[in-house]
Write a structure and sequence with these properties.
234 residues; alpha/beta; TIM Barrel; eight-stranded parallel beta sheet; 8 strands; binds pyridoxal-5'-phosphate
Length: 234
């Protein structure tokens, strides 16, 4: 995509984020845009980087590690896709946050690799809030228990929750989902579980990030509105 077009898209998204914050009476500093760059060439990422963006999200380990090699070193990378246990070792120590932890076994493997590297890995618990068969994530009513189970793993640190809301025509339809995730985070926070924080809510994508912000998102993951449609056939 042309550099000018990417920069326009970025400016447009940032003003929409600011407007959503204003409507919700929130400080825009509470909301961080993650540029979801999967399938896109590093030349496109570089434009957005030059515009000042330092948070990038990828959903495949191989593509992620390739781009980490190629891009400037001061980027904060976010692993937002489903993660297999045998690939955890490639990203621990390389990413700022793993958004997609949805089982004890995955958390345990991240903990093992974190200890090998002498780091503590920040993670989010992925919640399948609408209980869709096609999606990963724990059910709403399982999230607190998973937090309790992983709380003794001191190589990880739970920072909050992540959700991928249903693909709806009208973004307003997802408001209730985002509201439920926010409520859940308040509930878990009030349980005061060791090693569990609920400061981060990663929710909202191209179609629904404004509604997500109105309901409390602190990280929004935007791909298409920034980089254009993805073509998976090339
Ligand atoms: C691809 C992806 C996004 C971005 O989706 P868009 O609709 O293109 O903004 C956000 N979150 C996750 C987990 C993704 O896989």
């Amino acid at each position: 995509m042309r550099a000018e077009e990417l920069t326009n898209n970025l400016n447009n998204i940032q003003s929409r984020i600011n407007e959503a914050c204003k409507r919700a009476g929130r400080d825009p500093k509470e909301v961080t845009l993650i540029a979801v760059s999967k399938t896109k060439p590093v030349s496109d990422l570089q434009v957005i980087y030059d515009d000042g963006i330092r948070e990038f999200g990828e959903n495949k380990v191989q593509e992620l590690t390739g781009k980490i090699e190629e891009m400037p070193k001061d980027i904060n990378w976010h692993m937002i896709g489903h993660l297999q246990r045998n690939k955890v070792k490639y990203i621990v120590g390389q990413v700022k946050l793993i958004h997609s932890v949805d089982s004890y076994r995955l958390a345990e493997e991240i903990n093992i690799q974190a200890k090998k590297k002498g780091v503590v890995v920040p993670i989010l618990i992925e919640v399948n809030a609408a209980d869709e068969a096609s999606k990963f994530g724990v059910r709403l009513d399982e999230a607190k228990q998973l937090c309790q189970e992983v709380s003794h793993l001191d190589g990880i640190h739970v920072m909050g929750l992540m959700t991928i809301a249903p693909n709806v025509v009208v973004p307003e339809e997802n408001r209730e989902i985002f509201h439920k995730i926010k409520d859940l985070s308040v509930d878990i926070e009030s349980a005061n579980i060791d090693n569990i924080d609920m400061k981060i809510l990663s929710m909202g994508m191209t179609n629904d990030f404004e509604v997500a912000i109105e309901e409390g998102a602190t990280l929004v993951r935007v791909g298409t509105a920034l980089f254009g449609e993805r073509n998976y056939n090339i």
